[in-house]
Amino acid sequence: MKNNILKELFPRFSNETPGIAVLIEKAGKVIVKDCLGISNLETQKSITSSTAFRLASLTKPFTAMAIMILKEMGQLNFDDKLSLFFPKFPAYGKNITIRQLLTHTSGLPDHEAPLYKKINKGDEPTIYNALEVLSQEKKLLFKSGTRYTYSDSGFVILALIIEKVSCLTYSKFLNKYIFKPLQMENTVVFDETKPTIPNRAYGYRRKNNQWELYDYDPLNYIVGDEGIYSTISDLEKWNQCWVKNILVSNKTLAEALTPAKLNTGFLSRCGFSWFIDEKNGRKIIFQTGSWVGFNNIMLTNIKTNTTIIVLSNTTSFPTEKDKVNLALTILKEINC
C-alpha cells in the first residue's frame, strides 16, 4: 500500500493536513508501513514512522499486560478482590475482581463525569482523584460479572493496583517491564509529571471547514485507561508480544485473548481489554482508541495472523464501528 493508495482511502487527508500512520504485519513480517499528513500544523512537520501519537484506549492492553506480568511474578491473582488492595473502598465495590476489571464486567460507575463536575479552572486530576470520586459513589451499574459495559474506570483502578503492588508508578512499571524489554524507545506515559515527548503529533478536529487544534483536556493526565504516546514503529514491536511468549507465557496470553465467561453462563465480547468478534467472515481481536483529536485502532485477523494498526491525529473516525470498518477495508485491499 503506497502513499497514493492511502490518498485514495483517505481523500480528506493530504501532505498539508493532519493524517495517519499505518502498519500492517503478517505472520511477523511487515508488509506495509506508510504515513500521510502533518503531525503539527504550526511547524508543518510531516508524520513519519517515528511520530508519537496519543494512543487513547490503545493504552488499555498495556495496562492489561502489566497486570499479567504481576500475576506471573506471583504478586497478584486475576480473581483477587478489590478489597485486597483498597480495604477502605466502599462496600459496593469491594468484591469486584481484577478479572472483572480487565474484561469490562465490573459494573464500576464512570469516573469522568463526576470529575468534570468537581474540577475548577486549572485543575488537572490524576488517577488518585479518580479513585476519590469512585470512593464517593454508592452503587454499581450492575452486579459484577453479570454484564459487559465498557469501563474506563476499571482500567484506572488497574493502574492504581499496579502502583500499589509494585511500589512503582504506573509509568515506571511500564517503562521497566514493557517498554525497555521491547526496546520501545519512543513510547512514553503522559502522566501528571508531563514528560517531554519527542516528535509528538498534535490532535486536530475539523470545524467551520478548517482544521482546529484539539489536543487538551483537563483529564489528559489520568492513565491506565489511556495516556500513552507511541509510534507506529514501536507498536510493531508491541504487537509481537501478543503472539509470542516474550513478556508472559503462552498460557497467560491464551487466557487474555479468550472471551470472559459471565456469571450467567454467556460469553462477554472481551478478553483482557481486547474485543473478540467475527466480521465479514474474519475472526478478529481489536482495541480502538479515541481521545481529544486522536483516533486509533489495532486489529488482528486471527486466521491469517495479520495485524493492522492505524494511528490518526484527527477526529475523522469517531466511533468504534468507523475504526473497525476502516481496518477491515484496508485488510480487504491487501487480501488479508
Question: How is this structure best described in words?
Answer:
The protein is an alpha+beta fold. 30% of the residues lie in helices and 19% in strands. The chain contains eleven helices and 13 strands. The chain has helices at residues 3-9, 60-72, 82-85, 98-102, 112-118, 127-135, 152-166, 170-179, 232-240, 250-256, 320-333, and strands at 20-26, 29-36, 38-40, 45-46, 53-54, 188-189, 204-207, 210-213, 228-230, 275-279, 282-291, 294-301, 306-312. A six-stranded antiparallel beta sheet has the order 2-1-13-12-11-10, sandwiched between helices. It has a three-stranded antiparallel beta sheet with strand order 5-9-6. A hairpin with a 4-residue loop joins β12 (294-301) and β13 (306-312). α2 (60-72) packs parallel to α7, α2 (60-72) packs across α8 and α6 packs across α7 (152-166). It is globular, with a radius of gyration of 19 Å. 44% of the residues are buried. The mean pLDDT is 94.
Keywords:
single chain; 336 residues; alpha+beta; six-stranded antiparallel beta sheet; three-stranded antiparallel beta sheet; 11 helices; globular
Give the topology.
Layout: H1 3-9, E1 20-26, E2 29-36, E3 38-40, E4 45-46, E5 53-54, H2 60-72, H3 82-85, H4 98-102, H5 112-118, H6 127-135, H7 152-166, H8 170-179, E6 188-189, E7 204-207, E8 210-213, E9 228-230, H9 232-240, H10 250-256, E10 275-279, E11 282-291, E12 294-301, E13 306-312, H11 320-333
Antiparallel strand pairs: 1-2, 1-13, 3-4, 5-9, 6-9, 7-8, 10-11, 11-12, 12-13
Helix pairs in contact: 2-7, 2-8, 6-7
